[in-house]
Structures are given as structure tokens and as C-alpha cells.
Amino acid sequence: MNKEQLISLLKATLAELTGSEPKVLTDDDSLVNYGRDWTRFLDPSPLAVVLPASIEEVQAITRFANEHKIGLVPSGGRTGLSAAAVATNGEIVVAFDRMNTISGFNAIDRTVACGPGVITEQLQQFAEDQGLFYPVDFASSGSSQIGGNIATNAGGIKVIRYGMTRDWVAGLKVVTGTSELLELNNGLMKNNTGYDLQQLFIGAEGTLGFIVEATMRLARPPQELTVLMLGAEDMDGVMSILKTFQEKMDLTAFEFFSEQALSKVVEHSGIPRPFETPTPFYALLEFECTSEAVSDTAMELFEHCMEQGWVLDGVMSQSLQQLQNLWRCREDISETITRWTPYKNDISVVVSKVPGFLAEIDDVVSREYPDFEIIWFGHIGDGNLHLNILKPDALDREEFLQQCNRVSKWIFEIVQNYGGSVSAEHGVGLLKKDYLTYTRSAAEIEMMRGIKKVFDPNGIMNPGKIFDL
């Protein structure tokens, strides 16, 4: 059966189920748009794009894929950075944009049911309208979708206080590779009845099944958020700042970035520098300033860090606009450097090992990439570093990728020596699967393959991602 016949049969199958014309896209622009994520190293080549509007349609698509031995690739906001949502081999892309309803809000339980296509910012706004708060936040919150967030266990800028996406999932409905619908956990706080299957689907990148509904937890909103931006001479200083503030205050965020990163943002976005003194590194601290006593404590700690020589300059937000501008210094980095097609390493270690870890990696990349611009930033409060290598305009994309892959092996050897992770929050996808062994043992990977075969015996769910069968 050729491509046109398969597409016609797919449309007929879905039309019979729904009684109306299904939304199946086959034009070139749609295939490219829905067939890739933010990575640009692989060319998309899907068979078609389907936008289901119901769980039943997702099940029908899965049955069709099993019958005709076609892979399925999930597509959310397509903001991923590991090519987990890239369709390169004639797969059907299943895009969840139309499954975007919020329902079932429960004020007592502080839970709400979301379709997988609900935008992160949409959920944040819904929570705010109820006087509550959805704390998982990142630069792509205006376009990323809840289903994708769960499938990649997204982290972001407030992990130090609120944890990862995993910590806010109260229940899931998933369609497995056998088209079976599983309803997992039902919103329970306590459920000690054997294996927690829900947790298997969180961070699985759609390789076991597709999330078709999620019950999400909400929290009380933070009060009087305030930001401190501090300039530091080195990473030892940044870590000393973290230790000093954590001993006396509850932080909602602790981020870091380099002067190179800040310079790019200031040039691109036109936002003012936080203060006149350029410093090699910057720490951004956020906390709830609910009283004058908290403000006084923050200033005392700021002054102490200055006296110790850890901080060279700094500023504390005095208005909402200033707070937003300070956050943009950090949040605008990814968007700003996109035009250079950055090769991203999303790596982590335990927090106490960060200075030595970063220093060793920086030595390697500085030696091996003398002509490349290196941009450092990350969620230093949870040990997550983002190493971005910018592609020179004159360098061919494939040659650039080959050079980066060669050096990545040395970087990941350092990650392995420190007991760290080759992917802290972006997932494995296609780009990192060759390096999975630096974090996972052969026994672990074999067990993961076995788990996939249970839920997806024909290997149709996001094939080729994380590992090869």
C-alpha cells in the first residue's frame, strides 16, 4: 500500500469513528512544522499529521498504526530540545492541539483535569483565576503543552522550591501502544497498591503510550515575589551565595548565567543591564518578601556576600517591572541564542559538586572549541547546567554537529565520573540516546526495553527515541 492509499484509509477510519471529516494534514508546511521540535539538526519526514479531538480518536489512530506497522510520534508545543518529537522516518505525527480543555476543577483537592494540549500558561492562568498557583514554569510556558511537559518531566526555573512536573501530577489517562486506555492513580494523595504505573509514563517521552488527560495539582500562590541579581567573580562565589541564602531564607528560584549570555540578551532584547559592573557570572535569586524582616535579612546576606568578596555588585527589584526585567536577563537566553543553532548539553550533578564539574567541562570545551562561542546558564539551585555551543554562521550544520558530538563524549565522561546525568530535564530523544550509557547501566537499559515491550509490543510509540529496540 503506497502513501496516498494509507492516508486515504486513515482518513476513512477516523471519519467512520467521528462521523465527520477528520483533521489530517499532509501539506509540506504542516509536515515540517509538526514534524520537528526546537532542534534543527534532523530533517522531518512524517507521513501525515493527525489532530485528534478525543481519546477515542487517539485509540483508533493507535489501532491503525499497529495494523499497518507505522510509527506514531507525539507532538505538543514542539518546544523540546532533544528531538523527542521529531518524525524522521515516515511516521504519523499525533498533534494534541485540539485536546486542550480544562475541566473538573476541585477547590478542596486543589486539582484540575487537563487535556494534553493545554498550554502551560493556560493552566497557570486558570490556577490564578481560582486564587491558586501552578508552579512549574519555564521560558516556553506560552507554547509548551501539559502532555509534553509530563512526557519529558519538565523542570524549569522553580525546581529548587516546587520540584519537577512529576511532583504535580495527581492522575493520568494514557493510551498505550496496544490502544488500551489506562486510568492511573485517580488523583489520590496516597495509593500504596503495588507498582506505580503512572510514574512510568512521566518522562517516558511517549515511548510507552500517549497521555490523553492529566489531573494536575495546584498550590497556594507565592506572595510578594522579589528578585536579587548578584554579580560574582567565579562559580565558587555563586555556590557560596547559594549556601548563605539557603541557610536563612526559603528561595523560590536560584539561577545562574554567564556574562556572555547576558550580553547576548541585552543586545537582542534591549533590556537594561541589571547594574553597571560586568562580572563573569550572575546569580538570580527569587524569594517571597512578605515582611520588612525578610527584606532586611536579604540585604544583610547581600552585604555579607559583598564583604566576603563573593559578590562584586548587585540589585534587588523594587517594582514589578524591574522584577520582570531581571527575570528576562535569564529567561530570554534560549530565545536569544536560537539564531545560532546552538548545540545544547543539558547536564546535572548533585549541587555540591557543581563548581568542580563546571570547571572541568569548561576546560574541555574551551580547549576543543577555540573558535566557538560558549554560553553557560542553568538552574544552579538543583545542579542543572545548560552548556550551549553556538554554531558559527559560516560553518555547515552537519560539520558543526559532528564536531560537537566528538567533544560530547569527553563531556559525558566527566558527567559519568561525577555520577551525573547527560540529560537533566530535556529528555533523551534522538540527540542523546547514543550517550545514555554514561548515565544508565546496561542492566537498566535492558529493563527499560522490557518495559516498553509490555506497553508497546509492536514498537509503534515514538520509535527510536531514548534507545533502539
TrEMBL record:
Pfam families: FAD-oxidase_C, FAD_binding_4. Gene3D superfamilies: 3.30.465.10, 3.30.70.2190, 3.30.70.2740, Uridine Diphospho-n-acetylenolpyruvylglucosamine Reductase, domain 2, Vanillyl-alcohol Oxidase, Chain A, domain 4. Its EC number is 1.1.99.39. Keywords: FAD, Flavoprotein, Metal-binding, Oxidoreductase, Zinc. Residues 42-221 form the FAD-binding PCMH-type domain. One of its GO terms (biological process) is respiratory electron transport chain. InterPro entries: FAD-bd_oxidored_4_C, FAD-bd_PCMH, FAD-bd_PCMH-like_sf, FAD-bd_PCMH_sub1, FAD-bd_PCMH_sub2, FAD-linked_Oxase-like_C, FAD-oxidored/transferase_4, Oxid_FAD_bind_N. Homodimer. This is D-2-hydroxyglutarate dehydrogenase.
